Amino acid sequence: MTISLGQIEKDEYTLRIYDSQGKVVYSISDVNSSNQEILLNDLTFLTPGIYIMKLQGERNSYCSQIIKK
User: For site-directed labelling of 28, which of 41, 44, 66, 69 has its Cα 20 to 30 A away?
Assistant: First the structure.
């Protein structure tokens, strides 16, 4: 899965994916936003459902919904 970051502020981010219960099911640190994309190699362990992806930086945070079929 590739996540396009678009025009977010340049920063070092932590990416977390939460399940519908609010539990962190995936986390990666030191995501550099200057790349404009994040490649998540293996999310096959996620069961079908709705997840929340959150990028947290020192000054900003961004959230998005992921639907796994």
Answer: 69
pLDDT in tens, 23-57: 999 998 877 666 666 667 677 888 999 999 998 98
Number of neighbours of residue 33 by Cβ within 10 angstroms:
20
Residues sharing a CB contact under 8 Å with residue 44, sequence separation 6 or more, in sequence order: none
Domains of the chain: 2-68 (2.60.40)
**pTM flag (> 0.90):** no
